[in-house]
């Protein structure tokens, strides 16, 4: 299954859901809409018993510059922060499907390196 939005690409094949940042012109800075798209993709992956892991990837030159501050300043309280919080809760949960790889850390995720090390022992 493949799904394409302007700034987030989602592709699921052979038990792997790949979420790709597609906003290289802005160094893949993450907007509220992108957080919402990622949250939707994770919810769908969680409901699909065939999906065993999720891969986040960016452009060859940059994973992500972090949050798009201009977009966040435009959002009402709880908008972008709510979507971002949902994504961070999923990353910290250790639930299924498992995040398999992050090319660098996600913005605001202080435990990414520790999660990578811990899961490396479990996932090869």
Compose a concise summary of this entry:
A hairpin with a 2-residue loop joins strand 2 and strand 3. Helix 1 runs parallel beside helix 3. The protein is 40% helix and 20% strand.
Task: Walk me through this protein's architecture.
By secondary structure, the protein is of the alpha/beta class. The protein has a single domain (2-123), classed as 2-enoyl-CoA Hydratase, Chain A, domain 1. Helix content is 40%, strand content 20%. The chain has 4 helices and 5 strands. A 5-stranded mixed beta sheet has the order 1-2-3-4-5. Helix 1 packs parallel to helix 3. Mean pLDDT is 74; it is low at 104-114.
Write the layout of secondary structure elements.
Layout: E1 2-4, E2 8-13, E3 16-21, H1 32-47, E4 53-57, H2 69-74, H3 79-93, E5 98-102, H4 112-123
Parallel strand pairs: 3-4, 4-5
Antiparallel strand pairs: 1-2, 2-3
Helix pairs in contact: 1-3
Q: What is the succession of H and E elements?
A: EEEHEHHEH
Q: Total number of helical segments?
A: 4
Reading off the top of the CATH hierarchy, the class is best stated as: Alpha Beta
Q: Kindly report the average pLDDT value.
A: 74
Rg over CA atoms: 14 Å
Q: From the 3D structure, determine the CATH topology.
A: 2-enoyl-CoA Hydratase, Chain A, domain 1
Instruction: Give the helix level as a range of percent.
Output: 25-40%
Beta-strand percentage range: 15-25%
Unreliable stretches (pLDDT < 50, length at least 5) are 104-114
Task: Give me the count of strands.
Answer: 5
Q: Trace the largest sheet across and list its strands.
A: 1-2-3-4-5
Can you say what the CATH homologous superfamily is? 2-enoyl-CoA Hydratase, Chain A, domain 1
Task: Please summarize the sheet with the most strands.
Answer: 5 strands, mixed
Give the structural class: alpha/beta
Globular, elongated, flat, extended or rod-shaped: what is the shape?
globular
Tally the structural domains: 1
Distance between the termini: 26 Å
């Amino acid at each position: 299954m493949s799904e394409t939005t302007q700034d987030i690409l989602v592709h699921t094949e052979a038990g792997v859901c790949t979420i790709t940042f597609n906003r290289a012109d802005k160094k893949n800075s993450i907007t509220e809409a992108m957080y919402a798209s990622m949250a939707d993709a994770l919810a769908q992956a969680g409901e699909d018993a065939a999906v065993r892991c999720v891969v986040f990837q960016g452009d060859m030159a940059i994973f992500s510059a972090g949050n798009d501050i201009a977009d966040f300043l435009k959002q009402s309280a709880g908008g972008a922060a709510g979507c971002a919080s949902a994504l961070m809760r999923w990353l910290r949960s250790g639930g299924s499907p498992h995040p398999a790889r992050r090319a660098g850390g996600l913005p605001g995720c202080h435990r990414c390196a520790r999660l990578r090390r811990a899961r490396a022992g479990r996932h090869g």
